[in-house]
Amino acid sequence: MDGYHRLAVSVSVLVLRVRNIDGSKVPVPLSCGEAFQNEQVTWKKNGVPQPGLQGNYIQVTVQEWGGGNYTCHQGPEGPTLNYTVIMVQLEPDNRTVILEPRSHEQDYIQCLTRNYRGLFHCSWSRSVERSDATVLLVKGHRNHEPVLCEVESSGSGMRCRDNVCPYEEERHRISLTVYMRSVYRLEAYTKVFFLREIVTPGPFPHLHLNGSVFKWDYPESWEKPCSFFSLLFHVKVVRNGEDCHSNNPLDKNISKTEYPIDPIIIKPKRFVFCLRAQDKHTEGPWSHWSHLQCLLNKCQALLHRKL
């Protein structure tokens, strides 16, 4: 096509780490690229022409959180040659405002998996004031080996894969760092853990009452053989309408997938049977409660109720 030529446009992200943001003014050198040394280069910031910025090499001053998207062009009305996004990150305290803590321990990222096969899911919650925040970058590794993650379209979670053998003892922790961007503010959130610390058993299929014995199976997502990946079960009987976390004399930890109950000691006759589990050998996190609502010898699963 006469009169047209295609230009290879590159995009660079420059992270400016500032110790004291209040009143800060930091000079930052920028370059359009060595290939444009002899070109008539003009600049824009966030799409607005900057008449005072001319040439291949320039210097801009970033004040406080005032980063921006700098583009260089071939002449005042020419095509874009290069993009440079300047982000500002506060160090050393990082001053986190983009994500909300998910627990009293100021844990911003929560990760969960149902087994030891290496696939796990992590999630986070953006603060109301920073609901427009996006993930700029995710870095993951274990003992110098990469842990690959894919951010979900919602921007509130990611799915990761760690190449690990389920039968092998973990010696090194997984390290994940999520870089969150809100306008031109950058914050880094890091979570370090063993896989065994986030393995949470799934729901229990076929939980039912057979005569006076409650029975269930291992979760379908749990690792096999079950004789090697054993679970410890926590069973509890509470009054109808009570929370599974409430105290009750009928509260035990067992290894079997059944629990006999004496109908004589169940008063009143309407009650809730609660069941959860954890890895027996690692003492990892407990699963969510599964429960049956019972009236004498008749029970039904509580599907939509959180106890």
UniProtKB/TrEMBL annotation:
Record key words, sorted: Cytokine, Disulfide bond, Glycoprotein, Immunoglobulin domain, Secreted, Signal
Keyword Secreted: yes
Quaternary context: Heterodimer with IL12A; disulfide-linked. The heterodimer is known as interleukin IL-12.
SUPFAM superfamilies listed in its UniProt record: Fibronectin type III
InterPro entries (alphabetical): FN3_sf, Ig-like_fold, IL-12, IL-12_beta, IL-12_beta_cen-dom
Cellular location(s): Secreted
GO cellular component entries: extracellular space
Keyword Glycoprotein: yes
Species assigned in the record: Periophthalmus magnuspinnatus
One GO molecular-function entry: cytokine activity
Coiled coil: none
Family listed: Belongs to the IL-12B family.
Leader sequence segment: none
Name of protein: Interleukin-12 subunit beta
Residues covered by the Interleukin-12 beta central domain: 106-181
Pfam family for this entry, one: IL12p40_C
